[in-house]
Amino acid sequence: MKGGVLSLDSPLSRKLSVFVALSDTDLETLASLYRRRRRFRSGHEMVHEGQKNTSAFILAKGWACSYKMLPDGARQIVDFQVPGDILGLRSILFRTADHSIEAITGIEVSEVLAPDIMNAFANAPRLATAVLWAASRDEAMVVEHLVDLGRRSAEVRMAHFLLELGERLKLVGVGDAKGFNCPLTQYHLADALGLSAVHVNRVLRHLREEGLVTFRKGRVVFDDFARLTELAGFEPGYLDQDGPRLR
Amino acid sequence: MKGGVLSLDSPLSRKLSVFVALSDTDLETLASLYRRRRRFRSGHEMVHEGQKNTSAFILAKGWACSYKMLPDGARQIVDFQVPGDILGLRSILFRTADHSIEAITGIEVSEVLAPDIMNAFANAPRLATAVLWAASRDEAMVVEHLVDLGRRSAEVRMAHFLLELGERLKLVGVGDAKGFNCPLTQYHLADALGLSAVHVNRVLRHLREEGLVTFRKGRVVFDDFARLTELAGFEPGYLDQDGPRLR
């Protein structure tokens, strides 16, 4: 199998190509990271907070979430991961994982160990910059979620969150301007947005009745993308996905 | 001036050494990033949200903060930066900065441009891994602030926040188990922790009266480090600063 062909097809290569035009060496090095393919069932815990020597996983298919548990049993979801995202990139360089990761749907991943990443950086320094870009983008999303919790009303944070997911999925070819398939439950949304499940349902009903967005039967439909964007004050610049910057 | 000596003395080299034993090449490459020294006054805006082609800055002396402004004029402080931190590392690879950065005190920095980072990675791939580690650590702190806002009481989040600052400053040699000098006002704390300035004062008074921590006249003193740590549920593993992992 040719590395270049394989890796151009993957959601991660597609995502990184938005930042940098990848050379043949970059693509081959990236392809070498896809070797250890694994499948996990919905609900499988990939990484447990406090675990040592964790792996990272490049997500090819399905959805996952990263979260922290509080001493009182409450859960704060930090982010959701979709195809093209690297699960546990942050923890792979740490002695112990600082958060847990769980498969939301059945998923297909490639397992990546810390030395794989370091070898890849030595072979293809541009890839190092691209991975730093991807990590920066992940951080920018966590920052938006921080602003959600700190400063946005329940309705605005829901609108902002659904628009962000839509942009991310569009980038890897599994969503468009009309909407996207979404396996999240009201409990996932509640734990991510700092709301109760009842409140989540009320907010979603209100956004639907206003003709802005409908989330039903596993699908999010943007009924009025422009007005939803305005309500959310959504500026997708922090996702930095408007075509390759480096050529 | 010898690069190696210069860079071993810097707070950033000291910080990165916690992750990786830096080789002579790594140190020389790092030293080359310190060339463009700049000083800025307290209150100077280093980076403005939406700005294009921003620089990053390695902070040698002083404190800064990164923040986002909301359409209604509210401010959410994302994090504070102390010596050894890289300001604007996230935005340097983006087309437009996703947040603003301001000097809190007078500061001394080295200005770093995106190509400097890429050249450094090409010369010293281990440095790329170390910078990815530093970025991961920054993200881990933002995640903790997300948990602060989503799931921790005002008192617990203040305790957690002061302990985190203490650990970070200890790492770069400007704090110890007793406490640290701190230029933050109640307004900074309020905008970081999602509280009002009045609430910040009430929480600080209560923590002081309980004999846990005193923040007065620009200094934070840990009156009872063990009990404060217990109250906060503070587990410093996410700062990953217990001695070099890679040799």
UniProtKB/TrEMBL annotation, chains A, B:
Domain Cyclic nucleotide-binding: 18-94
GO CC, alphabetical: cytosol
Signal peptide residue numbers: none
Gene3D superfamilies reported for this sequence: Jelly Rolls, Winged helix-like DNA-binding domain superfamily/Winged helix DNA-binding domain
Chain ranges of the HTH crp-type domain: 152-226
InterPro entries associated with the record: cNMP-bd_dom (IPR000595), cNMP-bd_dom_sf (IPR018490), Env_Response_Regulators (IPR050397), HTH_CRP (IPR012318), RmlC-like_jellyroll (IPR014710), WH-like_DNA-bd_sf (IPR036388), WH_DNA-bd_sf (IPR036390)
PROSITE patterns attached to this UniProt entry: CNMP_BINDING_3, HTH_CRP_2
CDD domains: CAP_ED
Record keywords: DNA-binding, Transcription, Transcription regulation
Any Pfam family matching the protein: HTH_Crp_2
Molecular function terms, GO-annotated: DNA binding; DNA-binding transcription factor activity
PANTHER family per UniProt: CRP FAMILY TRANSCRIPTIONAL REGULATORY PROTEIN, DNA-BINDING TRANSCRIPTIONAL DUAL REGULATOR CRP
Protein name: Crp/Fnr family transcriptional regulator
